[in-house]
Amino acid sequence: MSLRRRTVEVLLTAGLLGTVLAPPAAAAGHGRGQLVPLRVATYNIHAGSGMDNVFDLDRQVAELRSLDADVIGLQEVDVHWGDRSQGRDLAAELAERLGMRVSFAPIYSFDPAVPGAPRREFGVAVLSRYRIVSAENHDITRLSTQDPNPVPALAPGFGEVVVRVKGVPVHVYATHLDYRGDPSVRTAQVADTRRIMAEDQESERRPVHQILLGDFNAAPAAPELAPLWETLTDVEPGGPTYPALDPVQRIDYVAVSKDTVRVRDAAVAETLASDHRPVVADLLLRR
């Protein structure tokens, strides 16, 4: 299996319309100590299908555009995966249609069914209005859904990008934790996540702005998530996210580093464009 990180940059061609939250406050200046606004979102796009299990990328584009977010973490992203998403490259297509840059981190990458066709891939992605300075696809513990006899093992699909927001470098991570009722794999994934994020902190000479976006497949009070809240703040959007129709639990998250990022506001968007609802948050970055 050949795994790679693919980053595609698309020039912004149009403003994004519509909001879920009030427009973010303008930065109070560009000097040290000032706060820089950033709107982020996370959305499990269900490989382009809605709550009705009908593939319809047009309605997901409309939903993503309405969020008016600067940075968006996506889960369940197909790239030439198969018939369920019409063999399309959802990461590149969403970026192009929204006028954003994209970095795609495959969890799975398989040879094509037909020689010469693109590789079949599935994973997470980050869309950004800001230039992606660097990107990496980290390994975390996974229990493969493609192996008939899986065992927990390190595998790719924990995406990280660094974007520079009005001069402020921001590390953005996109993740999709294990869905099974047994929390043991999620527990290992949280430990891996904290290790990777701590290494990023240690590699910098100043405090690092970190934003974790993803489908954690666990409730906020789940014991396996508790270690995350030691260093991260849950934006607490005030409502459940799954399933999209009459949701009963919150398993989709925006979490930010406690010391460098403040939360202005957060909300869950009501939509049936996927089987999850997106979370959007207005943040303030400390310079």
From TrEMBL:
Protein name per UniProt: Endonuclease/exonuclease/phosphatase family protein
Fetch the Pfam families from UniProt: Exo_endo_phos (PF03372)
Top-level taxon? Bacteria
Q: Which InterPro entries does this entry report, sorted A to Z? A: Endo/exonuclease/phosphatase, GPI-anchor_lipid_remodeler
Keywords assigned: Endonuclease, Hydrolase, Nuclease, Signal
Q: Which GO terms describe its molecular function?
A: endonuclease activity
Query: Which positions fall inside the Endonuclease/exonuclease/phosphatase domain?
Result: 41-276
> May I ask which residue range the UniProt record assigns to the signal sequence?
1-27
